[in-house]
Amino acid sequence: MSVGTEAAVWDTVERYFDLLQAHAEADVMLREILTPDFRTGFTGGLTWEGPDGLRDFLAARSVFFDERHTIHQMSVPEREADGRWTCRTRLSFFLRRLSPGAAVSEEFTGLAWHTWVLEEAPSWRVAAQIVEGFAGMNENARILFSHPHEGLET
Q1: DSSP string over 74-140
Q2: At 10, which helix (H) or strand (E)?
């Protein structure tokens, strides 16, 4: 594995988060960064798959008006038998929402571990982003992610 591959994988994950944090539409994300068979969700929990699943995932998280994901560590990408690449990340997250009628917004913070599956092409693409676990979450984040088999508790 070359430094160029590692840099391309890191860049691809960051481009994914740039679009996610900009609240890009599903069609834009599929055109710009995702494979048609994209899946996301929780290990042992709910998984959203394909274009319709992506739309449902984006709708479930549309309540957040401010968010940041900062990657702190990434494992060395490994090529799988199917030609796709996998890696794991540890990142910190910050999400903010304003519930109807609330006087102040709510913040959700913590650390998350993800497994990524990426497809090498002229423009690298994300095929999967699966949450493996959390740590250091504030109370709001603990509630939000309390039932991974059901999705987000928004």
Answers
A1: EPPPEE-TTS-EEEEEEEEEEEEE--TT-SS-EEEEEEEEEEEEEE-SSS-EEEEEEEEEEES--HH
A2: helix 3-21
- Predicted TM-score (pTM) of the model is 0.93
Name the one residue in this structure whose structure tokens are 């274009």: 51
Residue type present at position 68? R
pLDDT digits (tens, 9 = 90+) for 41-93: 999 999 999 999 999 999 999 999 999 999 999 999 999 999 999 999 999 99
**What is d(CA 151, CA 144) in angstroms, rounded to the nearest whole number?**
9
User: How long is the chain?
Assistant: 154
